[in-house]
Amino acid sequence: MENITAGKSLKVAVLISGSGSNLQAIIDESAAGRLDVEIVLVVSSRPDAYGIKRAQAAGIPTLVMCKEDYANAQAANERIAKACKEAAAEYLVMAGYMRMVLPPVLDAYPNKVINLHPALLPSFKGAHAIQDAFDAGVKVTGVTVHLANEDYDKGPIIAQRALAVEEGWSIDDLEEAIHAIEHKLYPEVLALVAAGRVKVTPDGKTAIAQGA
Ligand code: GRF
Question: How many CB atoms lie within 10 A of CB 110?
Answer without folding.
Answer: 11
